[in-house]
Amino acid sequence: MADPILTKPARGKTNWSVLLGAAFIMATSAIGPGFLTQTTVFTERFAANFAFAILASIIIDIGAQLNVWRVITMSRMRGQDVANAVLPGLGHFVAALIVLGGLAFNIGNIAGAGMGLNVLLGVSNQTGAIISCIIALGIFASKEAGVAMDRVAKILGGLMILLTTYVMFVSNPPAGQAAVSSIFPADYGILMLPMITLVGGTVGGYITFAGGHRLLDAGIAGYENLKEVNKSAITGILVTGVMRTILFLAVLGVVAAGSKLNPANPPASVFQIAAGQMGYIFFGLVLWAAAITSVVGAAYTSVSFLRSFSKTIDRYNSYTIMLFIVISTAVFVTIGQPVKILVLAGSLNGLILPVTLGTMLFACRNPKIIGEQYRHPTWLVIFGLLAVLITAYAGITSLSGMAALWK
């Protein structure tokens, strides 16, 4: 029997459904609990100046996402296979980075799920994580896991955006000040750590490959599908950018009014301060939705990097994904410290990005990898190189900041 995640859809309406599903899998993987917590923590610390880090990260995201999605789908190979085609053995190294980073990120996702159910049900973070783990396992236990994964990403992704938009309006943020600070912040240097953390949480590690691998598994690849690939990638980037902006403005409105956030659950206090008890319930829904979709995306994509190296993993793909989720939950329940894990996971994934994106750039002009028909645009190559250089520099300079955070 074929793996349900690999079932290829018919073209037409179903094809668009998969394109949108891939976009939302990437977007909701990025808009996870780490994204919510990172944005809240850094907005409280840097206020309107944080707008610069957001704008810079969106620009880097565009270069990273389009490069990776195009190389994967034009070559018809997963990321690890592209890397091995560039240099034998490199794919194994990249896979190891992705899986380890994905595990760190998924521990943060599970932490966020626990925090979300703590808000909604009043259970402990650990109990909420276990309940969420069981629900996520149910998605991959389904006979049509791929369809279920797409549907969950689209529905819960839309819910997150709508609820956060409401909170943004009621918090009444100083939007003009944020717009100015996005170009002229008070201090560029101190924004290196938040910038690399946002990039890591949006396109670092496994996230850049989530949508591309989903399209590849659905059979949407090759030069004849280039327009569809671009449409899906751009949709995902736009969804992520919109959510990042409205969340930042929602938090900014609260902190600009002089309110103090609860360090045990900073994003929850933002929603509660802005919209009262209803806002608090909204946040529980947003955080839990973000967590479940990110747990699904992280597990699916991380395990996809192992399928080329093991026939057993390839054959029992869904079970391997479920095991990945269980391990992530067990680590969180043992370690705890959800807020630190969520911020640190984004930084770790940002450090991986220069390696993975650099590998894709080596492959993008090789006809033996991407074929004779497709030619990768020069502007995308330049964009990608800038993203590699910026994230490599920011990643190195942020190491001391990460160490200080963990103390």
Automatic annotation (TrEMBL):
Where is the protein found, in the record's own terms? Answer: Membrane
User: Pfam families in the record, alphabetically?
Assistant: Nramp
Give GO MF terms, alphabetically: metal ion transmembrane transporter activity
Membrane topology type = Multi-pass membrane protein
Record key words, sorted: Membrane, Transmembrane, Transmembrane helix
Q: Which GO terms describe its cellular component?
A: membrane
Q: Which domain of life is it from?
A: Bacteria
Do the record's keywords include Transmembrane? yes
- Major subcellular site: membrane
The residues that cross the membrane are 16-35, 47-64, 85-107, 119-140, 152-170, 190-212, 233-258, 278-306, 318-335, 341-364, 376-396
The answer to whether UniProt assigns keyword Membrane to this entry is yes
Please report the name of this protein according to its UniProt entry: Membrane protein ycsG
